[in-house]
Amino acid sequence: MKIYASVFVTKVAKPMQNAEKMIEIMQKNEADIYLFPAYCLTGVSCSDLVHFQSFANETNEALDRLCEYSENEHKCIVTAVAGYENIIIRDGDLIQKGSTTIDGKKIIVAESGDENGGDILLLPTAMAGYPCIQNDIIEFCAESSKTRKCVIAVANQGFGESSADNVYKGFAGIFNRGIIVDFKGQEAPEEIAAKADSEQQTGLIYTRPNRGEERFPYYGKNEPTRYLNELFLLQVQALYTRIQGSQKQHLVLELDGQASSAVALLVSVQAMKMCELDPKQIFAVCIGDSESAAVQNKELAEALGVTHLSINPIRALDAILYTADMQQASQQTAEGCMQRLHTQILQDLAQQHDALLVGSADLTDIALGSTVFGGIFARDYNVNASVPKTVLNEQLKLQAEKYPQAKSALTAIAEASADRIQENAEDLIDFALFFFAKRHTSYSDIKNYCLAVFEELDEDEIVEALDRFLRQYKQNQAKRSTVYEGANLIGFKLPYFPADIDYDLI
Known about the structure:
Largest sheet: 6 strands, mixed
Number of strands: 17
Number of domains: 2
Strand content: 15-25%
């Protein structure tokens, strides 16, 4: 029995277009069972559209088209559809119970893979992507197929989905009794497929990569280099999708000498290339840099082939403070004014060039609320929204090796950022943030974890850093609520705590 697991570029909220694409794929590839990702007719990201009758009618028309094709060509089609969940379309009939028998073999369809029994288990899935998700899926499917002594096929949503909340990492695989018969990952906006005969038992045995450093718990059980590379590709995919959806031809971002902005620039360059747009249509804006920083930023922009703009806002800042009768403005007020001025300049440039304003604020800054209202959070789309500062810096060091022409500038930025991270104990904050936000771990346990890992710090230093983190986290919920969209790429979100509740996080 031939199985064909296919992932294509879904058109969100275009059921009939997606149905025709599925038919096109089936016409070109002979198989007994065609497995497609969950919600590939509508897209995962159509949100509340599924509750509108007009959209439900469009979905049903697309299902009718698939049923008609299945009846005429005697095909078996498997997916999941909003309102129906797991379905099998076979010989013109729509089977909602998620199981059937073909040539004496019991076929079970499920999204979770928890169902027992059956000779072939088909998994149409729509799981949000995170680094090394393929490792977890391969391990689960390989072990489950071995334990159940069955064939497991999986197809997950990928390119084409919205990047507002999540990015979807497309993959397709077929496993037989512990063997990886065929597995493909979607690295570009194009169709991928895994195909095999259900009796085939040749292939690879999966081996889990080495565990990452404990100091970076975000890596989990995965090899750090692979984790960082896949994280970068997810960031690129997210921005690519946003560029495609917005139909913008230009990008604007601030290049400020920080690792976060350097990574955002690298992501932007790769996303524009994926969109087949010229990196020259990226405006890397440097505002009020020191002479040394200005030289470094210009070197980086030129090495990456983007357009470099240098702007001196000091006169404008002086005029603003004077007009507001703040000749004796405090340093904090002046710095806040400068941040908002940067944002205004960037927003004006984006409007002038009909460009997408790309943000670079990282997860650490968002958690701490390290900005003023109208500051670095006020961007159209943030590519670093779910990446902590320490992981971002490791990512920059890795990516620097791939850009020989820009390696010197990127390495210098990474080294300077590493010094700032250590000086501000942000590596400890990122470590604590993982257990606080993902595991919801108690204060005392987080402190003990920090004591075990950060041996170079004494208990007083650790307590001071932890207290500062939790105090700022609670105080700055209002700022976090103003953060513009950015995809969740690490599998968890920052918890919401109203600033005015009487609850001590420490």
